[in-house]
Design brief:
Elements lengths: L21 H13 L5 E5 L10 E5 L4 H7 L13 H10 L6 H11 L3 H4 L4 H16 L4 H8 L5 H7 E5 L6 E5 L2 H11 L4 H12 L5 H18 L1 E8 L2 H6 L7 E6 L6 E3 L14 E4 L9 E3 L13 H10 L2 E6 L7 E2 H10 L3 H6 L4 E6 L13 E2 L17 H11 L4 H12 L10 H14 L5 H8 L3 E4 L4
Parallel strand pairs: 1-2, 7-8, 10-12, 11-13, 12-14
Antiparallel strand pairs: 3-4, 5-6, 5-14, 8-9, 9-10
Helix pairs in contact: 6-9, 10-11, 14-19, 17-18
């Protein structure tokens, strides 16, 4: 149909043929029919109508017009987006000339869409980025943003800014913003809206189950803005289960956190996150959503002379008197937290060892809508302690394909064996097979992030960090 911009024909055991003219395509279909071969049409984007002569599989994400049309014909399947680790593994397995840093950069812009993240040519990436920027730039008022989030906007714009996401516990899908880049740019657009306008939009989203992700995103935008401006947070301590059982009739413990105004929010990434941030802020938020468990943190600012480096002892001593607040913002009644995310942040701040000894140096603060505060309970800290004798597949970031290559080429099956090999790799002593440098960069990075997870004592300490719940809403 008129929407087709490129065609490739794949046949088992043969090289793909591209490009094809409409005439050659029709000839190929006629030959397939005459030979009794099954034809499968894989459509990257919604067509204008059904194709005859074969079965169609359409990837519309999220074209409502096509979904409504297809409901009358076949079933809809909502598949998870690609993860960052899967994209890295795909690039390596397919031997694409795209390094890990570039895939990470694209993931921040496009989210888990393999179509853009694995593009061969940089020109295509630049074009897709400009299209997203143009689509966001066209949103100039509350009504246009509302139309986008509620599914009333132009399908082409909606397709590049939103993605479908299956809900793990229900036979439904939800709609989420495509990427951290899209979230940031839309948040900048929203900064000119009044509080009343944003609240009105949030109430609309709250009543739509399929907009749950968008509702949470909007709440986080408002929460970041509220905490940046500074305020007193009256927070309720969430007791440990055993303490609740013993002191069932005890009045809840309330604490007050004084949040100073932050004129310039420190937005950090994995490279910039370090103990030196104690001289910035005091409110800090990650540039991307890759930080599991943490949406922001607050640490009172320390005056540091220009050009002077903050030592480990200094940041540990500062934290002794100034509690580190880790914020998790959510509209859900339950929100499990991965210990690995907390440990990674504390390690980067050089506070992991001191917090292991004294978990009360940190507070994990759940920021929720005010109607959830009274019923909120202590949340689960998910710890995964892995012994060195366990499979390397237990390390996050090492998928089945990577593990298989490490086993077949290097005889590495356990975490202990990988630890020894990575030490040799870092020291330049490991002999690599051709084309395996990216494989070892991934293995080394994943193992180092895994780090303290193998020691149960760290996970136990993270589970003992005091938890609080509060709301900034009046």
């Amino acid at each position: 149909n008129e929407n087709v911009k490129g065609v490739a024909v794949f046949k088992g055991g043969e090289e793909p043929v591209r490009p094809l003219t409409p005439e050659k395509m029709e000839a190929a279909l006629e030959k397939a029919a005459a030979d009794g071969e099954k034809v499968l049409f894989l459509c990257d984007g919604p067509p204008t109508g059904p194709r005859h002569g074969g079965q169609m599989v359409v990837f519309p994400s999220p074209n409502e017009k096509w979904v409504r049309f297809s409901e009358k014909l076949d079933c809809d399947l909502y598949m998870p987006l690609w993860t960052r680790e899967e994209l890295h593994e795909a690039a390596r397995v397919l031997a694409l000339d795209i390094d890990g840093y570039e895939i990470d950069r694209r993931f921040e812009i496009f989210g888990g869409a393999a179509r853009e993240c694995l593009l061969f040519r940089q020109g295509g990436v630049n074009k897709a980025t400009k299209y997203i920027q143009g689509a966001i730039g066209a949103i100039t008022n509350q009504d246009e943003l509302q139309h986008l989030l509620l599914g009333k906007a132009d399908n082409a714009i909606r397709d590049c800014l939103l993605h479908y996401e299956p809900r793990p516990t229900r036979k439904r899908k939800t709609v989420k913003l495509a990427s951290p880049f899209v979230e940031q740019k839309l948040a900048e657009r929203m900064s000119v809206m009044t509080y009343e306008e944003r609240e009105s939009l949030r109430k609309l989203l709250r009543g739509l189950p399929e907009a749950a992700s968008l509702h949470e995103w909007l709440f986080k935008v408002e929460s970041h803005d509220a905490l940046r401006q500074g305020r007193q947070l009256r927070a309720r301590l969430l007791p440990l289960p055993e303490a609740t059982a013993v002191n069932d009739n005890t009045a809840p413990q309330m604490d007050v956190f004084d949040i100073a105004r932050t004129n310039k929010v420190d937005e950090f990434n994995n490279e910039s996150l370090s103990r030196s941030l104690v001289a910035l802020g005091p409110y800090h938020k990650p540039k991307s959503k890759t930080w599991e468990s943490i949406d922001a943190f607050y640490l009172p600012r320390k005056d540091v002379p220009l050009g002077q480096t903050v030592t480990v002892d200094e940041v540990v001593e500062w934290n002794r008197e100034n509690r580190l607040l880790l914020f998790q913002m959510t509209v859900s009644e339950t929100h499990d937290v991965n210990a690995s995310g907390i440990m990674h942040m504390l390690s980067k701040l050089d506070l992991l060892q001191s917090v292991k000894s004294d978990p009360s140096r940190v507070a994990l603060v759940f920021v929720v809508p005010k109607d959830l505060v009274d019923s909120y309970v202590r949340q689960t800290i998910v710890t995964v302690a892995t012994a060195g004798t366990e499979s390397i597949r237990e390390i996050k970031g090492i998928g089945d394909t990577t593990a298989g290559i490490l086993e077949q080429k290097y005889g590495i099956r356990t975490i202990d064996e990988l630890q020894v090999a990575v030490e040799r790799y870092d020291g330049g002593e490991l002999t690599l097979h051709d084309g395996d440098r990216r494989l070892w960069t991934l293995a080394s990075t994943s193992l180092k992030k895994h780090g303290p997870l193998s020691d149960p004592a760290y996970g136990d300490a993270m589970a003992k960090i005091p938890q609080y719940v509060c709301s900034w809403e009046e």
